[in-house]
Amino acid sequence: MAAEIQPKALTRKPVLLSKVEGSQDVVSMAAIVPKEDGVISVSEDRTVRVWLKRESGQYWPSIYHAMPSPCSCMSFNPETRRLSVGLDNGSISEFILAEDYNKMTPVKSYQAHQGRVMMILFVLEMEWVLSTGQDKQFTWHCSESGQRLGGYRTSAGACGLQFDVETRHVFIGDHSGQVTILKLEQENCSLVTTFKGHTGGVTALCWDPVQRVLFSGSSDHSIIMWDIGGRKGTAIELQGHNDKVQCLSYAPHTRQLISCGADGGIVIWNMDVERQETPEWLDSDSCQKCDQPFFWNFKQMWDSKKIGLRQHHCRKCGKAVCGKCSSKRSSIPLMGFEFEVRVCDSCHESITDEERAPTATFHDSKHNIVHVHFDATRGWLLTSGTDKIIKLWDMTPVVS
Questions:
Q1: What is d(CA 305, CA 311) in angstroms, rounded to the nearest whole number?
Q2: CA torsion angle for 222, 138, 383, 332 (degrees, to 10)?
Q3: 177 with 156: CB under 8 angstroms?
Q4: CA-wise closest residue to 119 among 166, 71, 167
Q5: Rg for the chain, CA atoms, rounded
Q6: What are the tens digits of pLDDT across the range 181-195?
Q7: Residue 115 DSSP code
Q8: What angle do CA 395, 122, 128 make, to 5 degrees?
Q9: Is 42 helix (H, G, I), strand (E, B) or coil?
Q10: Are residues 27 and 390 in contact, defined by beta-carbon separation less than 8 angstroms?
Q11: Most exposed residue of 56, 98, 111, 245, measured as fewest CB within 10 angstroms of its CB?
Q12: Taking the model in full, what pTM does it have?
């Protein structure tokens, strides 16, 4: 049974700046317009909207564009003001926004997938549009011609997609829980590796090109930090949500990870600390502390004339222990456990107050978050929820 997360009392918390309301259905994705008081949103109500802040302090649509199908995802490049919109019918439509964000010019539209487009990325350096679909296909197209350059079939539908410009590696996280790394060329790709660490599907990916680490969020409520650059296979777990992790964003200047979940939680993780891998759970037929047999160990139960006990595991050392030898609970933040988990009695005694010091802060957005966008230059966070509302937060009190 999962341990209940107890958010810690905070003196500093995000400041809600504005609410953007008016969408008739869930806002699938949205982005803060850089250097402007504006937001671009795409929604299941089939609309693309650009919201600009008026003198009244409220956000009103300067652009309202109806699409032929529900909008599932988007990618916006501020340098070129190119907006790529993925649709439920499998097509991708591209637009160029005017400098004043009051006009949107259609550029092209093409069929990228046989089902819903789940994630889309525009790569300016390569002039590529990368996308994943419900049809279990990853594809990339030329942004200039709209021509399909190549594709790769994933093991399941994928809604995690990241790209590293330097190495041309693409990272794909799918619903089976697998992460696939491909090396992309102009018209072909090669499989680099696949790995799996989640017990649920991958719901979000986030790439840090400086530290060369990949973060994956999952429906199993956890986040894993994969050390890609270190080439040692290090995987650090982070446990901080009561429901599935919906989206991830990274603040490279402060080395803080922002995770948002279906529980409405916004968690700010300090990644500028020396974190530890969680141990592998050990197998044993008896408690590795008191040697009492577990309930399936009939021979030892018969020989010792003792009743078999239920098996548990210490989250710090990984040993198989009985309930009596693991009666204590403790947080282990450097292992990613910000809330109290089961530990054996000896490990409990060895954990210092310094090791229990929190490395994350917890905040309540008061809506079920489906997407997040972080503007590092201003320290603003955008969250969109199932309540059809977009919220803008000033994160400088907590991301600094």
A1: 18
A2: 20
A3: no
A4: 71
A5: 23
A6: 999 988 889 999 998
A7: S
A8: 155
A9: strand
A10: yes
A11: 56
A12: 0.85
